[in-house]
Amino acid sequence: MSLKHAVLGLLSESPASGYDLMKLFNASLTNVWPATQSQVYGELGKLTAAGLAEVSAHGPRGRKEYAITREGIAELQHWLAEVPPGGPHRDESLLRVFFLGVLTPLEARTFLLGRAEETARLHAELRRVDEETQWDDDMISVYGRLTLEYGLRMTAAQEEWARWAAEQIDSAKVREASDRVRSRHGLGTGDGPAATARDDGPDDAPAPTA
Amino acid sequence: MSLKHAVLGLLSESPASGYDLMKLFNASLTNVWPATQSQVYGELGKLTAAGLAEVSAHGPRGRKEYAITREGIAELQHWLAEVPPGGPHRDESLLRVFFLGVLTPLEARTFLLGRAEETARLHAELRRVDEETQWDDDMISVYGRLTLEYGLRMTAAQEEWARWAAEQIDSAKVREASDRVRSRHGLGTGDGPAATARDDGPDDAPAPTA
DNA sequence: ACCCGACGTGTCAAGAGTGGAATGTGGGAG
DNA sequence: CTCCCACATTCCACTCTTGACACGTCGGGT
To answer: Do A96 and B80 touch (CB under 8 A)?
Structure first.
């Protein structure tokens, strides 16, 4: 339901063609609300039909420049101020964590550390954007800055958590529990994907403490 | 693509009927990967057709108990260990922040503080769950605990951010920028949704510092 | 003069997710 | 014994999202 508002929001900054909007999506909204061509063009059509946007100019190669209408602004404001945000976050990474017990503790640990590095990478990327952008005082800049800061804080917290979680796994209890589950399914050497997962002997040896 | 793995993951813990799975989804995965009846039952069908799950028992009222198969386990492991996580987060709240400039600074500030409270509420709820749960050492407990900790950390960071962001808005520059954008669209008293949004005089008076 | 790369629009198929409704049965409370 | 609620499945119609494909055109560099 929110692609509509994303497009309206971008149009509220300045008129744009579908092509322009795609660039904007890829530039500023990639990590917030990704969208594809088909979606954008489709949405522009619906928006126009609904009277929330209109074609404000025709350009060179069939280019249609869309502008937000008064009704569009109203709808945007309505959405921002009155519609209760209720997006149930789906988090694939987290879903994986939940079932990490199906892997060996070693594999699980590796996964978490991988997550940590990935998050760190994203964090660095965001920091780079932050530093390279010259923040002036238009709407996109001001609130874009807030959005970016959010990203910075979240990625930082995520990395911290992932490293902490990896440590948690280095515990005898966890290893026992995992073994129990795995043996319940008759898992041992075979079957599994990465042959890294082997149970060559009791897990008494201390886990490699990186 | 991940509902499939969510179902497989739950089945890997113990066999269950579609009805059971729904309860599990609502109990433990609501904030990670929400799902509806139609989805779950549909997925069970596909899973069975694909040989990743099978009907392991028939119960009282047409009840079909599903169990994960060896292939299912393998697929789950494969997904966990080898498929690179790439979920592009969509965050509706964040999208709103990006366009908050369409509202008055006061409204924007209110929105952010509302977010802060909402997050705080969720945080408290998670803490409650954490304390009330008796964490033993099976897979769901151990990794569920990690997942929960993630939620606790994220909600904490989000609330902090929201309060910080609300403060940021109390700045002359932001107010000017917002006014500029709003006037560009000829906004004043009318039109807008919440009549709270009024520009009765210059915004020189300090914003109410909660 | 020509050609390639950027501009620019559009359609389609398929899968994911939402929300609601229809249908039926078993078992326990009263 | 009866009735109602929890159990349990299935179908439907819709929107959102993805990914690819198809098509046409302006403009500048060689």
So the answer is: yes
